[in-house]
TrEMBL record, chain A:
Membrane topology summary: Multi-pass membrane protein
Xref: InterPro entries: ABC_BtuC-like (IPR037294), ABC_transptr_permease_BtuC (IPR000522)
Family: Belongs to the binding-protein-dependent transport system permease family. FecCD subfamily.
Keyword Nucleotide-binding: no
Descriptive protein name: Iron complex transport system permease protein
Transmembrane regions listed in the UniProt entry: 23-54, 74-94, 106-127, 133-152, 159-177, 207-231, 252-273, 293-314, 321-339
Record bears the keyword Flavoprotein: no
Key words of the record: Cell membrane, Membrane, Transmembrane, Transmembrane helix, Transport
Organism of derivation: Nocardioides soli
């Protein structure tokens, strides 16, 4: 905790709450998430009475509305929860790893890799269903992040700046290749319009279960790396002096965030702002300790995603707005407001 | 449409070369001689189009089609020498003879805004039929007119007007007359046979395409459904005046239950009567299976081979006729 003591003297971190207030905040975040989970099942683009929702969840009734709850709203809510957790934690990891408060998982090429792979699957191989191309997205994210890691590693290890540069470069190349493929194949472009926007509609739970073990591994790796990442926030030399293994910590972090962001993108497409904004909010509430930031991100990110998805269902009824668009609309102004707060911007 | 400097330079170069070629051609031939030979392609007449009054050959022999004019021209028995590419789905829905006609044409581009003008010029067409967005046409209009008389239809041209225009310019009006008669007879037969159903039943036509996000579908108020509503007289939902078509709205599967307010549901099937591939997730959903219309046999699969030519519309009406015949009698 030396690191924290040093950081607490820095600008903007003088009001870091104590453990009891942090725990209380965590409980509030958990309660908020629970409420939103219920609302996500209750509210949709059609009006279904609460009693019907109750019957659908706890009785084996077979009316149309009960099916709508069990087959669509419930899976959609679970998808939102899982994807939100993954995006929030991966965002917190990338910001801690790069010591850059404006980093998000996309900066390491995760979204570019997933999008390129899905374009290949849809445009060249004719894959059309989400169960089919999710594995392409996951593999694309993993392969590209490994490439970034390889390109961004120097003899002294992997520097965050070089990693980010490698990620941006590979992302730009793959983005160009993806656009070229889509322009020469209008049907693929059509098929990918909604995937590119980021959506949790129509993702059955069959899509989520295979990814969950990867998320579980990533969760363990992330919390294992959280202590060393606290030390690394002071700089590599000080961290090394405290016995932190820099290369190992970075490798674990990159692996964890790739599994999380790659899996989330595979399920829902590229959803921006959640991984960027939520760790900011978490840091604003709890200060620079990564363990608390991770915990808060895990609860706040799905809350943001679920709120955005609920809004997307009701603002243009009976049509819907993909959640990725709503998170951008909600996230951008909030992020600007946060960035203007001095204490929110430091790591 | 914006063009890159490279593309603009390329287009200018093509235009210059074409101008030179046309000038040389004009110098080397005598228009009167051509008329003297009695060659019908040398005789001209004028047609009205969205780009003005165009002088076209009386009996064009080498027609190139760009955009939405390809399938209607082929449907009228035309044999284009060059076409812009149609989607595999559209081609697969054509009758075999029309598929063969399409396959024998030179593909000029994957999309209308990328037509290879040099390639088009080498085909030496005597008529070019175009239906693409206005802005895209304006970008290539001058180059096309240097190659051959160009007849343009805007996207707001209604399908019957488009068929009339294509038949007039392409000199295939006889085929159009036959198709119009067959279409009218078919509509009359359906109205006569199912008059009671048409008058007293609420219908909805729904669909789903490759372009839809997973878990979404749409109410099809345009396309073949327009023929069923506007020609046959089925009571089908329609967007409010001035509003976007209902088909532009993606609806999530949880709204399948909302279809229960309609008495008969029509949905897309292929030529063999099976639900189209993008629509399969809808018919496999529990909410669909729980609909009264589905359980009582009042969900009808209808084949829509296209809606911008009479031949395709006639095939649609055949399918609708067969589907309506399966409706269970009212109890």
């Amino acid at each position: 905790m030396t690191a924290l003591a040093l950081r607490q003297d820095g600008p903007g971190t003088s009001a870091v709450p104590g453990p009891r207030r942090r725990l209380l905040g965590l409980a509030v975040a958990l309660a908020l998430l629970a409420v939103l989970l219920v609302l996500s099942v209750m509210i949709g683009s059609t009006s279904i009475a609460p009693s019907v929702v109750w019957d659908a969840l706890f009785h084996s009734s077979s009316g149309i509305d009960e099916f709508a709850i069990r087959d669509y709203r419930l899976p959609r809510t679970i998808v939102g929860l899982v994807v939100g957790v993954a995006l929030g934690l991966s965002g917190a990891l990338i910001q801690a790893l790069t010591r850059n408060p404006l980093a998000d998982p996309g900066i390491l090429g995760v979204h570019a890799g997933a999008s390129f792979a899905v374009t290949v699957a849809v445009g060249l191989l004719g894959v059309r269903d989400v169960q089919g191309y999710m594995w392409f997205a996951f593999a694309g994210a993993l392969i590209v992040t490994l490439m970034v890691l390889a390109l961004g590693s120097t003899r002294q290890g992997s520097s965050p700046v070089v990693l980010v540069l490698a990620g941006v470069c590979i992302g730009a190349v793959l983005g160009g290749a993806r656009e070229a493929l889509q322009l020469t194949n209008p049907e693929a472009f059509d098929a990918m319009r909604y995937w590119n926007a980021g959506s949790v509609v129509g993702r059955p739970l069959d899509v989520v279960w295979p990814i969950l073990p990867f998320f579980a591994v990533a969760l363990v790796l992330a919390f294992a790396a959280s202590g060393p990442l606290n030390a690394m926030a002071l700089g590599d030399e000080l961290a090394a002096a405290q016995g932190v293994q820099l290369v190992r910590t970075r490798a674990l972090s990159v692996l964890a965030l790739t599994l999380l962001a790659g899996g989330a993108t595979a399920i829902a497409g590229p959803i921006g702002f959640v991984g960027l904004m939520v760790p900011h909010v978490a840091r604003w509430i709890v200060g620079p300790d990564q363990r608390w930031i991770f915990a808060y991100s895990i609860l706040l990110a799905p809350s943001l995603l679920l709120v955005s998805d609920i809004l997307g269902r009701i603002v243009m009824r009976p049509s819907e707005i993909p959640v990725g668009i709503v998170t951008a609309f909600v996230g951008a102004p909030v992020l600007i407001a946060l960035a203007r707060r001095k204490k929110a911007s430091g790591l | 449409m914006t063009t890159t400097p490279l593309r603009r330079r390329g287009a200018a170069l093509v235009a210059a070369l074409l101008s030179t070629t046309l000038v040389l051609t004009a110098c080397g031939s005598d228009g009167d001689d051509a008329d003297d030979t009695g060659d019908p392609t040398a005789q001209t007449r004028t047609v009205q189009a969205d780009n003005g009054t165009i002088e076209v050959p009386a009996d064009p022999q080498r027609v190139a089609t760009i955009g939405n004019t390809t399938l209607p021209f082929i449907d009228l028995g035309g044999e284009p020498i060059g076409v812009t590419e149609e989607s595999a789905t559209n081609v697969a829905r054509l009758p075999e003879d029309q598929q063969a006609t399409y396959a024998s044409a030179k593909i000029l581009a994957t999309s209308a805004d990328e037509v290879d003008l040099e390639e088009l010029a080498t085909l030496k067409p005597d008529l070019i039929l175009v239906q693409i967005p206005d802005a895209e046409f304006e970008a290539i209009e001058k180059q096309l007119e240097l190659i051959a008389p160009t007849v343009f239809f805007g996207l707001d041209a209604e399908w019957k007007a488009l068929a009339d225009g294509i038949a007039d310019a392409g000199n295939v009006a006889d085929a159009l007359s036959q198709q119009k008669k067959e279409f009218g007879d078919k509509v009359a037969k359906i109205q006569e046979t199912y008059g009671e159903v048409i008058d007293g039943t609420s219908f909805v036509d729904i669909s789903r395409g490759d372009f839809n996000d997973p878990g979404t579908f749409y109410i099809a108020d345009i396309g073949c459904s327009e023929i069923a509503r506007d020609e046959v007289g089925l009571d089908l939902p329609e967007a409010a005046e001035g509003a976007d078509p209902l088909a532009y709205e993606s609806l999530s599967f949880e709204q399948i239950g909302e279809l229960s307010k309609y008495e008969v549901i029509t949905y897309p099937v292929d030529a063999e009567g099976q639900p189209t591939e993008p629509f399969v997730p809808v018919v496999e959903s529990n909410t669909w299976k729980a609909l009264d219309a589905v359980k009582s046999g009042r969900a009808l699969g209808v084949f829509c081979p296209g809606n911008n030519s009479y031949g395709a519309a006639i095939r649609y009406l055949d399918s609708l006729d067969s589907a309506l015949a399966t409706l269970p009698a009212e109890e």
